[in-house]
Amino acid sequence: MKIAEQIKLYTTLWQETNALYEKWAKKHGLSYYELLVILSLADKSACKQKDICQVWQLPKQTVHTILKAFVQHGWVELTPCEDDRRNKTIRLTPIGEKNICAIAGELQRCERAVWKKLGAERANALIEYTRRYNQYFQEAGLNEDT
């Protein structure tokens, strides 16, 4: 297989993976971006909007809009940070803890089943090759010299 074909196939598979997560989110009444925010909130008891933006590379306005909706659902509370009053700490409410952790838990069960099916050797290889791909891409495409 030629390099151009490999690139096209890899890109197609990458897009397919993203589409699967988007489809999973939609099946649960969520947008893909809402799912990403939920995963961040389930991972920490308290965090900041800028943390979520950095982890998922999402625009601030997108995360702000999602959090505003989650406040309306009663899932989160936003409180000013003590160290920087411009930022707000996001805390799960009891109902948010229940709903957000249930959604994240269901996705994680699905993911664990996939990784278990892959087996340790293939899973480790996937991680290693993805790490190398990202490293080589950064070296080839993001260096200031290129």
Give the topology, please.
Blueprint: H1 3-27, H2 32-43, E1 46-48, H3 49-56, H4 60-73, E2 76-80, E3 88-92, H5 94-141
Antiparallel strand pairs: 1-3, 2-3
Helix pairs in contact: 2-5, 3-4
Protein name: MarR family transcriptional regulator
InterPro entries: HTH_MarR-typ (IPR000835), MarR/SlyA-like (IPR039422), WH-like_DNA-bd_sf (IPR036388), WH_DNA-bd_sf (IPR036390)
Pfam families: MarR_2 (PF12802)
Structure, described:
73% of the residues lie in helices and 9% in strands. It is mainly alpha-helical and 146 residues long. The chain has one domain (31-141): Winged helix-like DNA-binding domain superfamily/Winged helix DNA-binding domain (Arc Repressor Mutant, subunit A, Orthogonal Bundle). It has a three-stranded antiparallel β-sheet with strand order 1-3-2. Strand 2 (76-80) and strand 3 form a beta hairpin. The protein is globular, with a radius of gyration of 18 Å. The mean pLDDT is 93. Residues 1-135 form the HTH marR-type domain. It holds the Pfam family MarR_2. This is MarR family transcriptional regulator. InterPro entries: HTH_MarR-typ, MarR/SlyA-like, WH-like_DNA-bd_sf, WH_DNA-bd_sf.
List the keywords.
mainly alpha, Arc Repressor Mutant, subunit A, three-stranded antiparallel beta sheet, 3 strands, 73% helix, WH_DNA-bd_sf, WH-like_DNA-bd_sf, MarR family transcriptional regulator, MarR/SlyA-like
